[in-house]
Predict the structure.
Amino acid sequence: MTGKIRRVRSGPPVAESSSAASYSAWTQASTASATGMSSTYSFFSEPRAKTDPEPLPSEEKGLEARPEADNLVGIYAALSGRSKADVLGEFGGGQFSNFKNALVELCVAKLSPIASEMKRLVADPGHVDAILIDGADRARAIAAETMKATKDIVGFVRRR
């Protein structure tokens, strides 16, 4: 992960490009954010998305010269389960800012349940461990016959 780190709130700015340094700063930001501390950092990879004063095109051909718009339309299409043409049919010709607001609302609607589930799972590590143990037990039972045959072919001595 490479990129620039910019200070968002109080705390010393960090400007490094190595993966380890970036991860360290991201970890610091996550920890500070989770613990309520005041230093939070934000990553901005170059190039950043540009503000687009032009209206959103009505056809996919209009996206060819506008990679930033194409990217955002693609994200909206993927999250909504629709084609780019459908998205452009709805938002094409309108102000780009209206489309971006709709994209933000869609992202929040789609990603909020995932974030909630992650918080729930992190809060109950015993439940996660139980799921992992159950999965390992089921996988072991499914693989037992294949492992037995493989050990016989290779010549491993089996336990009694």
